[in-house]
Amino acid sequence: MNKYYSLxxxxxxxxxxxxxxxxxxxxxxFYGEQQDYELIEAESIPHIVYNQPKPATPLKTxxxxxxxNVVHIEPPPRRKIILGIPSCDLEAANIQDEMYLNRxxxxxxxxxxxxxxxxxxxxxxxxxxxxxxxxxxxxxxxQSNHDLTLSLFGGVIYLYTHSEKGAELIKExxxxxxxxxxxxxxxxxxxxxxxxxxxxLNHNNQGLPDYRKTGELVNQSNQEIWKKYSETCVSCxxxxxxxxxxxxxxxxxxxxxxxxxxxxACQYxxxxxxxxxxxxLSPLHKRFYNxxxxxxxxxxxKFESTACTGCGRCIEACIGNINKNELFMELxxx
Amino acid sequence: xxxxxxxxxxxxxxxxxxxxSPTIKTFxxxxxxxxxxxxxxxxxxxxxxxxxxxxxxxxxPLIKDRIDITVMQTGYVTExxxxxxxxxxxxxxxxxxxxxxLEKLYDxxxxxxxxxxxxxxxxxxxxxxxxxxxxxKKVTFCYGSKSPQECIYEPYIDxxxxxxxxxxxxxxxxxxxxxxxxxxxxxxLLDKIDVNIDDSVAVVVGPxxxxxxxxxxxxxxxxxxxxxxxxxEKNMSCGLGKCGHCMMGEYFVCKDGPVxxxxxxxxxxxxxx
Lengths: 334, 273
Ligand SMILES: Cc1cc2nc3c(=O)[nH]c(=O)nc-3n(C[C@H](O)[C@H](O)[C@H](O)COP(=O)(O)OP(=O)(O)OC[C@H]3O[C@@H](n4cnc5c(N)ncnc54)[C@H](O)[C@@H]3O)c2cc1C
Ligand code: SF4
Ligand code: SF4
Ligand code: FES
What we know:
The complex is a heterodimer of chains A (about 325) and B (about 270).
Chain A (H helix, E strand, L loop, with lengths): L3 E5 H11 L4 E8 L2 E6 L20 H4 L3 E3 L10 E6 L1 H14 L7 H8 L1 E6 L25 E6 L2 E6 L2 H11 L9 H21 L6 H10 L2 H7 L8 H4 L7 E6 L3 E6 L20 H19 L10 H5 L6 H9 L2
Parallel strand pairs in A: 2-5, 5-6, 6-7
Antiparallel strand pairs in A: 1-8, 2-3, 4-10, 7-8, 9-10
Helix pairs in contact in A: 7-10, 8-10
Chain B lengths: L9 E12 L2 E8 L10 E6 L3 E5 L11 E6 L3 H7 L6 E8 L5 H4 L3 E7 L3 H13 L6 E8 L8 H8 L4 E7 L9 E2 L16 E6 L2 H14 L6 E4 L15 E2 L2 E2 H4 L2 E3 H4 L8
Parallel strand pairs in B: 7-8, 7-11, 8-9, 9-10, 11-12
Antiparallel strand pairs in B: 1-2, 1-6, 2-5, 3-4, 3-6, 12-15, 13-14
């Protein structure tokens, strides 16, 4: 099942032009400084971004949109191909799956959305300022949850099948396209590139405590540091809604015993407020601290999958300029 | 599980609304199909188009075609509930969570401590123990309420007092001339009980402050932490261990609880809030 294929960029783009008739294809495009997933049309194919971290929106929004009716379930959408997913987001799907597809209760909407997607992961060939996946044990190239890996390297597109679904897509493409088998040298260069990027990330994040230490550091911290770092927090919740591993939501009623699910965040005031008016997370710094306890202490106690992938989005999204890596450095150095 | 979509409620006909006190009403519901629950498990009660909130049924788990839910009016959803009348339709999701550990109560002297509306979920336990009275040594039920007017389930109190193995003691914070029982906060009753602590398990349900002081007192009296059970109230949305609202440390109160032994939760943050 696992096999390398290659084709010219020109043939790949022609092939995509065929596929958009049968699939909704989403791939990253650049907007100014930022790239994000967009539904691809014939004209946008040449502008797809390859091998660059990382779309502004995490993969989870395809499975858990900001808002969705969970009682009146729409029939499965047109099959989707999601292209250019970084490894951190693929790893984040693990905790999402543990949460929404566990043995006790399968979330029907999440499952429907997840099953409708073919996931094409990508190697990161560059890094962004706040990327720190390797510090938390995640490689900068796809490891799990994807159907195919794709890289554009030296003007050639390389595909690697990782699942049955991925192999089927290759078959589908073979109707219009001829694939080549990459030489050992080509494969070696891809692997060398992986190593290079990994070393680059490690170097960039030297001294940052790893995922085994973060929990201990948060647990042993005193409240002063949380007060200090939350000073500029405005409770916008961006850090949580943009986080690929945050899973919280709120159900709202709609007439006819229907329900709409909204993404929610423990950073919003009133998240834990109970009827009597008690609200354990009323002080801002306690809300802020709660998110760290959740990610680095409680979730690791309860779930097998990592609850922070080191994608750095929470740092980039914060309008209060709060940097969790600075916070961990400070915790580690005290 | 009662239905396939975990978010879809079972429609239930409101048969009757019973006024228990100025702020508490019992809603007697007939679900579309039989409904099984374990005592102490809770449901999400859905007011169509308005909202839903978690409540622990107050009826006997041995009755399958009817379910009583006793609700104190406190806010948005409960206010709308209190305006509803027999004949209307509500929704129920559940049952959810881990209820009272009946197997831990068998062959014991069971001490049950209820405060205010906490009697509601405990009535279900009392019904259950009443039906299985040959399996327990004795049941001591202590109930505290703000005032005589706010004492609920008066007829049931009389019924319980007529069962030889059951003892009922009540107190109110503020008495009036008609009141003949104890006066003071719920914990004063603990000074009066006749229970062999080494052979006893305690169950406490009530407002956080009442549970806090009750636990303190029970510990002083010599109850081991693992023999004190509490039903925790947290903000809830899904009831399924997914939405995150009810987290208490690593626990999802909706799924891992709401009933916990004190030793399971004593180190968790903000348990009394
Ligand atoms: C396991 C458990 C069992 C319980 N059993 C009982 C019982 O047997 N009897 C009883 O009287 N009480 C019981 N309660 C308490 C009961 O759930 C609350 O009193 C009830 O939630 C109050 O709802 P409210 O909307 O009226 O109050 P509010 O104070 O208006 O709201 C309470 C919370 O619900 C949220 N909320 C309010 N409006 C909405 C909305 N439109 N959509 C979504 N969320 C909203 C708010 O965020 C707020 O934090 C129990 C609670 C738990 C956790
Ligand atoms: S906490 Fe921040 S770095 Fe970690 S997964 Fe979430 S957004 Fe990414
Ligand atoms: S993104 Fe920043 S300002 Fe917004 S809630 Fe998170 S920490 Fe606070
Ligand atoms: S109420 Fe949603 S996780 Fe407990």
